[in-house]
Amino acid sequence: MKKVILSIAVIAALGLTSCKNETKKETETTTTEMSKDIAMTDLSFGVRGNCGMCKSTIEKAANGVEGVASANWDVDKKKIDMSFDDTKTDAMAIHKAIAASGYDTEKVAGDEEAYDGLPGCCKYDHEMMMNQSTEDKKDDHSKHDH
User: ∠ CA(132), CA(40), CA(103), 5° rounding?
Assistant: First the structure.
């Protein structure tokens, strides 16, 4: 009789242990699948600015928007390249955040009060070209006489 009870106890213990491991594996698989569902959107658009301080402020404003994974403003091209989660934000929210920091974007004019508070080196020309390729910038001689 003792052997029968001991055998049942051992079988029950083994059964519970194997169920525990199966449950853990399912949880890990579910977590991995969920992380694959996040789709990032890449976006580029023009932003006016002049210098490294502008770069810092523009990127900080863009990265401050929830869902933005990365933002890199190119001083020469006057263009920002970014990646964001479109389930958390959209392009217009990013344009507005940058404009609120005082910088014009292709779609939203910079906040004048914020612009007035920028350092002197960051006071950009409101007519400057944005979102340029490097070749266009080198060949553009429309601002002066030859």
Answer: 40
